[in-house]
Design brief:
Strand content: 5-15%
Shape: elongated
Number of strands: 4
Order of helices and strands: HHHHHHHHHHEEEHEHH
Largest sheet: 4 strands, mixed
Number of domains: 2
Distance between the termini: 66 Å
Strand order of the largest sheet: 3-2-1-4
Structural class: mainly alpha
Length: 353
């Protein structure tokens, strides 16, 4: 097989993409998850900043008040620790719930709902050092390295710029009341988080574009792979051709046997031909042979050879060919139309035509 035929130049088929998805291979950006999670959490914290400050201020006031009233009593330390953990949990549990919902929502938005048990199965080929070395110098690995460096440099610069501009405010709150300190520290922290999240989101969008491009390229198939998949899903074209020939042969043999005994042949006039048989004590006329194009022409020739009447009726011929199988009686809605055709046949015979 020529080497060129193995070049992966064809777009991935739906079956190939479905198999990749079953294995957990999809185009997604982990950075998009992280950046949106950080941004939404930061915005949520900004909206509820005053509530957080009020809650934490009340707790610290109670904590230090108890500590001053009970100096040196170690028995109070476990209870204070438990109170501290409960208060922190009460403050941040909405954030944990929000982060969980957002993380699930972003994943579903990127790849939809997906369960891929094969993705967590251990694969021994991943332990191959040669393959691992090859992956280290792949285009994807180079992109990930550049992306990581950009994240460190750009996000780090944003954090530095945000904090540097607030140094004067930080120094000024040294002797401020606790509530003012909490407000200033949280304001600076949120500023760093939000600006960092915005920059991180820009990097994540570029990453998403690349991930989709790389996945599309990875899923490409060679012409031979497309042919093999077609054989697996649709069947070998040679076998399908042989089956069609055999089917035509069987229908042709059936036509040679049944058409000479038919009462009438209804035609389209050229594309369809349906042979009907009706005699007592049959309840309704029966389709004994039908065909399209070549077989229809053959049915007409056999009918002419055996002097079977041929009646042209486009609507009846099309309906019977599409809705009635060979060996079945015609449906009740066709009784009137077929009865008129049979009456015409009987009149022709009575006149000796």
């Amino acid at each position: 097989m020529p080497e060129g035929s193995q070049e992966k130049t064809e777009q991935a088929t739906p079956r190939r993409l479905q198999e990749a998805r079953r294995k957990g291979q999809v185009a997604k950006s982990a950075d998009l998850n992280g950046s949106l999670l950080l941004l939404i959490t930061g915005l949520f914290a900004l909206l509820y900043k005053d509530n957080i400050i009020t809650h934490m201020h009340a707790y610290f006031y109670s904590y230090f008040n108890n500590f001053v009233k009970n100096p040196g009593q170690d028995s109070h330390l476990p209870q204070l620790l438990i109170d501290f953990m409960l208060n922190v949990f009460a403050v941040f549990v909405p954030f944990f719930i929000l982060m969980l919902v957002v993380a699930l929502g972003i994943n579903i938005a990127q790849v939809g709902f997906m369960l891929a048990p094969e993705a967590i199965k251990p694969k021994f080929e991943k332990l191959n050092p040669l393959k691992g070395l090859k992956n280290m110098f792949s285009s994807r690995a180079m992109f990930e390295l550049v992306k990581s460096l950009l994240k460190i440099i750009i996000v780090g610069w944003v954090v530095y710029a945000s904090v540097r501009g607030e140094m004067a405010n930080l120094l000024a709150i040294y002797h401020s009341p606790p509530r003012t300190i909490l407000n200033q520290v949280l304001t600076i922290a949120l500023k760093v988080i939000l600006w960092g999240a915005v920059v991180y989101l820009g990097i994540a969008l570029l990453d998403l574009i690349y991930q989709r491009y790389a996945f599309k390229k990875q899923m490409r198939m060679s012409k031979q792979e497309v042919k093999e998949e077609y054989k697996q899903t649709e069947g070998d074209p040679q076998i399908k051709g042989w089956l069609r020939r055999m089917q035509r042969q069987l229908l042709s043999n059936l036509a040679r046997k049944e058409v000479p005994q038919a009462t009438v042949v209804v035609t389209n006039p050229t594309h369809y031909a349906v042979a009907l048989k009706y005699e007592q004590p049959m309840d309704a006329p029966m389709v004994v042979a039908k065909g399209m194009d070549h077989l229809a022409r053959q049915i007409r020739e056999i009918a002419q050879e055996h002097q079977v009447p041929i009646i042209e009726d486009v609507e009846v011929a099309r309906f019977l060919y599409a809705h009635v199988e060979v060996g079945q009686a015609i449906p009740t809605e066709m009784f009137q139309a077929v009865a008129e055709i049979l009456a015409m046949v009987y009149r022709m015979k009575n006149k000796g035509l």
